[in-house]
Amino acid sequence: MQALLLGASEAQQLRWLPRVADGAVATLAAPLDANPPVVLPRFDGKTLNGSVPLVADGEAAVFAVVLAEAANGQTVLVVADLAAGVRRRRLATIDPSRGFAELVFEATPAEVLDGCADAAGLLQWVRDRAAILVAFEQLGGADTALAMAAAYARERKAFGRAIGSYQGIKHKLADIYTRNEMARARIATTARGRSPAMRLNFPVRRPEHASRQPTRSATRRRRTSRPTVVWATRGRWIATFTTAARASSR
Predict the structure, then answer these.
(1) Residue 200 — very low, low, confident or very high, per pLDDT cuts 50/70/90?
(2) Environment class of residue 176 by beta-carbon count within 10 Å: exposed (0-12), middle (13-18) or buried (19+)?
(3) Which residues contact 11 (CB under 8 A, 6 or more apart)?
(4) What is the pLDDT of residues 67-88, one digit of tens each?
(5) How far is it, in rounded angstroms, from Cα 25 to Cα 81?
(6) 72 with 148, same domain?
(7) Are residues 109 and 135 in the same domain?
(8) Which of 35, 59, 96, 246 is deepest in the core (most CB within 10 A)?
């Protein structure tokens, strides 16, 4: 739960995060973009009243971090227990895997994030991190689609040969592979961003020689233009796939 990791004290994290480790679903009940709604839920210091019209995983969440308006008019982030005092209305969306819902809070027990001094700034950090995580999720879907297509191209035969051995198929697959690898590099670079709030510690595969002193040839490779790198990546994939396709045709 990124909002808790960034905006809660250690004691507050120990109260809420173990529930996520045990399998509980948590969510963020806040605007999905930088344009907040006209009316935010009201927080009186102990309870939450009001509604949030669009909440991802709102059907299954057991607690939520909510963007609310305090009694003094300031915008705050609070964490609310959704076991009681909340009504949920399921929403029909394009992506049925998320279980979007409208949440209506009726004296729902809540507490302010005690490590958050700037609710708007923290919320933007959370949105930025969410964008990176969604990008990784989409890349995983693209990788799976490519693996399924490549497997089918090795099995399906036409005129006595695996269809993957034909240039019209393998070059299209190579284009997808190249785009996936370019996206992987960009997402990983963003995840290792300079801002501490944005930095995500994802493991990145590095070549064995990455820690060595760069040689003259390595320096030349770094200066290679992007189109050359793209075509080299594409060519390596085509060579590997062609070998596998020929083997399946035998």
Answers:
(1) low
(2) middle
(3) none
(4) 999 989 888 999 999 988 999 9
(5) 11
(6) no
(7) no
(8) 59
Q: Which position has the token pair 């490549």? A: 150
Which of 117, 139, 157 terminates a domain? The answer is 117
Q: How far apart are CA 162 and CA 149, in angstroms?
A: 13
Q: Which two tokens mark 41? A: 């839920």
pTM over 0.85? The answer is no
Nearest to 183 by CA among 244, 230, 238, 243: 230
